[in-house]
Specification:
Blueprint lengths: L1 H4 L2 H14 L4 H4 L3 H12 L15 H26 L3 H12 L6 H7 L4 H26 L7 H24 L3 H26 L1 H6 L1 H28 L4 H10 L5 H11 L6 H24 L1
């Protein structure tokens, strides 16, 4: 039983099943979701060493890749498809939120598991998170300014989920606490994501079952943005002569978004329907990683 409690895939699938079958606790868990996300982000960003920015020249290409792949390519595709095929305005807002957030923090450990270029992914992820401080407010202004007036609340969430975790992670590294934290970091991160995923699914459970006509375009858009886009990015990397490790980094950066931050913004600032794209994106992200890992093992 203990091995299942520590198994990431089991934890995430359990969150989906419980969110659909026992959604009642979602009304309570949404009150601790942002705090859980802040803890997850703080622990995850300890992977960025304090001397990371000393060699600026070799960081230029991955820095640019992080912004181009996560925001221009993936984010642009999500917004374009949402405005073409989604009718419900709150679900459109949900897609804009997913497009505006940086890559999933999981892209760094996923890159290591899939034998990608970890240094490249790390640099690209850091650049995307720094860019998020400007891109997120700009995206709000461009796409949902008329529906949104809580600028102060948005600033509060950005500070809580991006700036504060970076500061806390620097403190952890400065006092050499990382080795002590590493013993339980994985479990805390996975169960923190459990809270986030369960909450997003539970809050949208009735919508998922009651209005399947709203769910179908969301599913199709996210499938295209993850599986189909990932396929084309991989083919593009091969045509451009990139090595396998860098292509793996490209694929993850261009398909995986931090749906936790997007979901936190949706639940905190908008009607619950706005969290539906984040919830569905999380489920697809899990299955996509499982598919990539299965394919890698099969190719050995």
């Amino acid at each position: 039983m203990l091995k299942y409690i520590k198994n990431r895939n089991f934890i995430f699938i359990a969150a989906i099943i419980l969110g659909l079958g026992l959604p009642q606790a979602g009304a309570w868990s949404k009150n601790i979701m942002l705090a859980a996300l802040a803890v997850v982000m703080s622990l995850s960003t300890t992977a960025v060493p304090n001397d990371f920015f000393r060699s600026a020249r070799r960081l230029i290409q991955p820095f640019a890749a992080g912004i181009i792949l996560s925001y221009l390519l993936l984010g642009g595709l999500l917004v374009a498809l949402a405005y073409l095929f989604v009718i419900d305005e709150n679900i459109k807002i949900g897609f804009v939120l997913v497009a505006a957030v940086p890559p999933a923090v999981a892209v760094i450990p996923f890159t290591a598991i899939l034998k990608g270029n970890v240094s490249y992914t790390l640099a690209a992820t850091v650049s995307a998170y720094l860019a998020a401080l400007f891109i997120m407010p700009l995206t709000f202004f461009l796409f949902i300014a008329e529906e949104f007036s809580q600028i102060g609340k948005l600033t509060e969430v950005i500070v809580l989920l991006i700036i504060l975790p970076m500061v806390l992670s620097r403190i952890i590294l400065y006092f050499n606490w990382r080795e002590k934290i590493d013993k339980f970091r994985g479990a805390v991160t996975d169960w923190g994501f459990f809270i986030v995923l369960y909450t997003l699914i539970a809050l949208n459970r009735d919508l998922i079952f009651a209005r399947p006509e709203l769910l179908m375009p969301v599913v199709l858009i996210i499938f295209g943005a993850i599986f189909v886009l990932g396929f084309f990015v991989e083919k593009a990397g091969v045509l451009l002569g990139r090595d396998r490790a860098e292509i793996t980094s490209w694929v993850l950066l261009s398909t995986l978004k931090n749906q936790g931050i997007a979901g936190g913004l949706a639940v905190t600032l908008f009607p619950e329907e706005a969290a539906l794209p984040s919830a569905i994106y999380t489920a697809f992200m899990i299955f996509y990683f499982m598919w990539l890992d299965f394919r890698r093992k099969k190719e050995k």
